[in-house]
Amino acid sequence: MKLSDQSVVVDAPRELCFEVVAAAGRRLEKHSEKEWVVEFTTLADDREFRTVELLTIERPSVIHYRWLEGPLPEVCETIRFVALDHNRTRLAYSGTFSVGRGLLGSVIGRLRVKRRFDRLVLEHLQQAKEVAERRAMRTRVHPRSTEGELG
Description:
This protein has helices spanning 14-22, 102-138, and strands at 6-10, 26-30, 35-44, 47-58, 62-69, 74-85, 88-98. The protein is an alpha+beta fold. The protein has a seven-stranded antiparallel beta sheet.
């Protein structure tokens, strides 16, 4: 089942936004520079959910997530980092999930899981935006540019 495509615009350079999102969770394994296994803990509706996910990194433009363990049998997500100019980045999210086969799984997914999942995604995007914008104000590694749009 497709999750809602969502995005936020962040007043920070793309590489900084990428670093903020890539740093989330607790890295369990590093298969290579491009593949990491990461554990995430998420609080939703006063419950804590743990997931273990395989991240495929395409620095600094995309992170793909595939759940290896978690409350849903199948989740695949992607966050794209699109430079709008030197100091602004769009974080664009897309994803799919499955709660199981058959009519019951489809009904539960559509009525309960999708709505909650979409809300959590938006909250996580907003959190990443806040962290990246705070870091952008004080970073020396990714200084804010006074130049116009990218060429």
